[in-house]
Design goal:
alpha+beta; single chain
Length: 249
Amino acid sequence: MRAELFGKPLLPAVLALAFCLPVGAAEMAEKPEVAKSAAVAAAPAEAESVEQPGPVSPKEKPETVEEKPAAVKPEPPEPVLLVGDPLPDGLEVRGEGKALQSQTVSLSAPVILLPGQMIVQQVWLDPADPPQGISLRFRTAAGQEVGVYWEGEAEVFLPAEEQAEIWYYGLLPELGKPTDLEVFTEDMALEGETIQAVRFVTFGGRVLWGQTHLAQAPVEEPAEPTPFPSLRVPSLSSGKSDSSSGKPE
């Protein structure tokens, strides 16, 4: 039997083997390219690399212009009491007739007057016995007396004859009304000077001198420039000149 098998031609045996294989396998055997592609397809598919989106930039916000806060003016410091009591319990100085009377009050401690300061003095002039003039004076650490004065219609203070350096500061305040007299230290050339006492002077009449304060002088706002009126230049009439006469037509 074995001899007979080997003795037979090989072609019938190969054909029989081909019929025994599955249809798909036979096709793969006949076409090696198909078999190779099938093997590739049968292999587990590799994970495809998915390109991840980059970080999403935040939505650009429109630029906003920051509004600068309006400038706030600093509050001036509170006035400092130098001497005196509030009206009507002030210091009474009475000048009999046309006499000059005064009282000097020493400060509890010397005070240095700085630039930009002023003295605020409370006064009350008796309408029943009005004074002809009043004067507020300061004694410096060097022993000099400097001040200002107010007068009525008549001149009663003569600076040339005074032992103090005083300047005229205006008319007398209203009679019978408590008034705050403001005196700038710059006007008395006392900036940077040290004062030790205040002298209250009354020429005739009766005056109540109230509290004496040292305060910050108000800052003057710069004046706005005044615009100049626009000047209208008259327009020259255009005309062609006559070449023969040299005059415009």
